[in-house]
Amino acid sequence: MRITKIENQKRRPGRKNIYVDGEFLTGVSGETLLRLALRTGDELGAEQIKVLKKTEELVSARNVALRYLATRPRTVREVRDKLRDREFAEAEIARVIEELKHSGLLDDEEFARLYIRNALTLKPSGELLLRRRLLLLGVEKQIVERALCDTIRVGDRVEQASRAAETFLKRSAKARGGESPEKMRQRLSAYLARRGFSWDVIEEILKKTSRTVNTASDE
């Protein structure tokens, strides 16, 4: 078979229609044509057509992944799941992920550090909560632990918990005036636990805020 015509698709700029022996064969991206250096007049056998379709699937999978990454950083698992949902072959998925890793566009370690920094900026959070969320996003446990160690200093744990406690107590003073100090401490402990703070940090915060808790309860 010989390529007799390559033309632009009217509704999809950047894609081409390939004709062999005067008959339509397939539509491909411009990138696939460039990768394979195909031109009018080239001969295509069964093996070349197989390579053409494999290359087009790889290019399509990579473009889906790049569009997915354009909205926000992603983990390897998120990208893999996205490509599986689009029913790409496992071989193409693996190649795309390796390409993205090599180019630095897919990096679970950097993702974890960025996620932690952003989370701490937006809302006080403890390591337990951050660890759980990153694991759910598919980041490997050892990567999560390194990121937490690199990003959160010892003093940050208490500082984050203090910010969370301050917000909680201000809100509680307005909504639940007259509540007993013991009840207030119980609710503060539960709140800090939900925010992912460890018990040793919670105990320290309870000691530091005991006077504030008593004051809030009296209002």
* Class of secondary structure makeup: mainly alpha
**Major sheet: order of its strands?**
1-2-3
Main sheet characteristics: 3 strands, antiparallel
Total strands: 3
String of helices and strands? EEEHHHHHHHHHHH
The portion of residues forming beta strands comes to: 5-15%
Question: Helical amount among residues, as a percent range?
Answer: 55-70%
The global form is: rod-shaped
Distance, first to last CA: 88 Å
Count of discrete alpha- or pi-helical segments spanning 4 or more residues: 11
How many structural domains can be distinguished in the coordinates? 4
How big is the Rg? 28 Å
Q: Could you list the spans in which at least 5 consecutive residues all have pLDDT below 50?
A: none
Can you give the mean pLDDT?
87
Please, could you describe this protein's structure?
The protein has helices at 30-36, 46-71, 76-85, 90-103, 108-122, 127-136, 141-151, 154-175, 181-194, 199-208, 210-218; strands at residues 3-8, 15-20, 23-29. The model has no long low-confidence stretch (mean pLDDT 87). Strands 1-2-3 form a 3-stranded antiparallel beta sheet. It contains 11 helices and 3 strands; from the N terminus they run βββααααααααααα. 68% of the residues lie in helices and 9% in strands. The chain has 4 domains: 1-44; 52-105, Winged helix-like DNA-binding domain superfamily/Winged helix DNA-binding domain (Arc Repressor Mutant, subunit A, Orthogonal Bundle); 108-151; 156-218, no CATH class. By secondary structure, the protein is mostly helical. It is rod-shaped and about 85 Å long.
